[in-house]
UniProtKB/TrEMBL annotation:
Cofactor: Mn(2+); Mg(2+)
SUPFAM superfamilies named among the record's database cross-references: Glutathione synthetase ATP-binding domain-like, PreATP-grasp domain
Similarity field: Belongs to the D-alanine--D-alanine ligase family.
Catalyzed chemical reaction(s): 2 D-alanine + ATP = D-alanyl-D-alanine + ADP + phosphate + H(+)
Pfam hit, one: Dala_Dala_lig_C
Classification of source organism: Bacteria, Bacillati, Actinomycetota, Actinomycetes, Micrococcales
Keyword Hydrolase: no
Main location per the UniProt record: cytoplasm
Protein name: D-alanine--D-alanine ligase
Length: 363
C-alpha cells in the first residue's frame, strides 16, 4: 500500500501530520507500506516512513522537501508497478501497489484531481471518487447538491471570480443575511482564509483574504447553534453507510472568534472537543441521519466527516461535508469512531479493506 501525503494546497502541513498518525497505526505485518510525499511544487518523492518525522512539534509544521527521487505511478491497466527514478540512475521498481491511501487535504488532492489520476492508473484508493471529491471540495456546489436532495442548509451567497468586490456591490450581495457573516474560500479547508465579519465595513478585507486562497468566495449567514460533527464510514459488501456518535467543538479561548486554523492545530488548549457530544438521543439520531443522507447525496465512498449546527430548537443544519477529514489520532473523525467502538488502527484497516473491496473504473 502507498501512503500519499503533502501536496500543493495550503493544507500541506496538515496532510503531513495526518500521514504521521496513519504511519504509526498501520499494521506493518499485514501491509507493506511505501510512504510517498508530494512537495508544495507537486513533485512526488519517496518519503521517510517514520511517523515522528511528520508530527506537529512545538508549533513547527512538517513539510515534504524535494529529493533526487521521483515516484512514478503505473502507466496503464496492465501495469501495477510503482517506479522510482533517481537523477543519473536507471529507474527501479518498488513493486506492485494494491491500494493508495491519499491523505491530502484541499485543492490538488481532496478535490477529485488526484482521484482522477488514480482512476487513469487503474489503482484502488481510499475515499470518494472524482465527482464526490470535487463536489465536497466546492462549498458552493456542495450546498447546491444538498439543497437539491432536500437537506437543510443555512442561507448563503456566492461571489464568483468575475464579480466586483467594491463595498457597495458586496453589501448588495449579502443583503438579508444579517450579521455576523462568515466569508470563506469556496474550495479550501482547515479554516484557511475564513473571516468572521461583525461589521459590513470589514467585508472587503474579508473577501480579499478569502480570495488569497480561492477566487470564488462563499459568504454564509451566522447560525446560532452548537457546532457538531459526525463521522460516516462506508458499508462493507453493499451495506449502507455507518454513522459515528457525534462530537462537539466548543471554542473556550476568547482570542478565537471561531474554530480557526490556530485553534485547530496550534492552540488546542483554547478548544474543547467533546466526544460523544452531550445531546438528547433524538438529536443524536437526527444528526446521524442528516450525516448519512449528506454522504449519500454527494455519492461519497469510504469516509467523510459531516459538520452541522444544532440550533436551540434542535434543528440540524448542514455546514459542510469533508471527504478527507483530518485523520491524526487526535482529530475529530477518528475520535468519534473511537467513542463508537472502533479504535484508530482498526479504522485505518477498515478504510483500506473498503478500498480493496470495490472495483476500479465505473461503479
Amino acid at each position: 500500500m502507498m501512503v500519499l501525503f503533502g501536496g500543493r494546497s495550503g493544507e500541506h502541513a496538515i496532510s503531513c501530520a495526518t500521514a504521521g498518525g496513519v504511519l504509526a497505526a498501520v499494521d506493518r505485518t499485514r501491509y507493506d507500506v511505501v510512504a510517498v510525499g508530494i512537495t508544495r511544487e507537486g513533485q512526488w518523492v519517496l518519503a521517510d516512513d517514520d511517523p515522528a518525522r511528520w508530527a506537529i512539534t512545538d508549533g513547527r509544521l512538517p513539510e515534504v522537501l524535494d529529493t533526487a527521487s521521483r515516484v512514478v505511478l503505473p502507466q496503464g491497466t496492465v501495469d501495477r508497478d510503482v517506479q522510482v527514478v533517481e537523477r543519473g540512475q536507471v529507474a527501479r521498481t518498488l513493486g506492485a501497489v494494491d491500494v493508495v491511501l491519499p491523505l491530502l487535504h484541499g485543492p490538488f488532492g481532496e478535490d477529485g484531481t488526484l482521484q482522477g489520476l488514480l482512476e487513469l492508473a487503474d489503482v484502488r484508493y481510499v475515499g470518494s471518487g472524482v465527482l464526490a471529491s470535487a463536489v465536497g471540495m466546492d462549498k458552493h456546489v456542495m450546498k447546491t447538491v444538498l439543497v437539491g436532495a432536500g437537506l437543510p442548509v443555512g442561507p448563503y451567497r456566492v461571489l464568483l471570480p468575475s464579480a466586483p468586490a467594491d463595498p457597495a456591490s458586496l453589501e448588495a450581495l449579502v443583503a438579508g443575511l444579517g450579521l455576523p457573516l462568515f466569508v470563506k474560500p469556496a474550495r479550501a479547508g482547515s479554516s484557511l482564509g475564513i473571516t468572521r465579519v461583525t461589521d459590513l465595513a470589514q467585508l472587503p478585507e474579508a473577501v480579499a483574504e478569502a480570495r488569497r486562497h480561492d477566487p470564488k468566495v462563499v459568504v454564509e449567514a451566522g447560525i446560532v447553534g452548537r457546532e457538531v460533527e459526525c463521522g460516516v464510514l462506508g458499508g462493507r459488501r453493499g451495506a449502507p453507510p455507518r454513522a459515528s456518535v457525534p462530537g462537539e467543538i466548543v471554542v473556550t479561548d476568547p482570542r478565537h472568534a471561531f474554530y480557526d486554523f490556530e485553534a485547530k492545530y496550534l492552540d488546542e488548549s483554547g478548544v474543547t472537543l467533546s466526544c460523544p457530544a452531550d445531546l438528547p438521543a433524538g438529536v443524536v439520531a437526527a444528526v446521524q441521519d442528516v450525516a448519512v443522507r449528506s454522504f449519500e447525496a454527494l455519492g461519497c465512498e469510504g469516509l467523510a466527516r459531516v459538520d452541522v449546527f444544532v440550533t436551540p430548537d434542535d434543528e440540524v443544519v448542514v455546514n459542510e461535508v469533508n471527504t478527507m477529514p483530518g485523520f491524526t489520532p487526535y482529530s475529530m473523525y477518528p475520535r468519534m469512531w473511537q467513542a463508537s467502538g472502533v479504535d484508530y488502527a482498526t479504522l485505518v484497516d477498515e478504510l483500506l479493506q473498503l478500498a480493496l473491496e470495490r472495483p476500479t473504473g465505473l461503479r
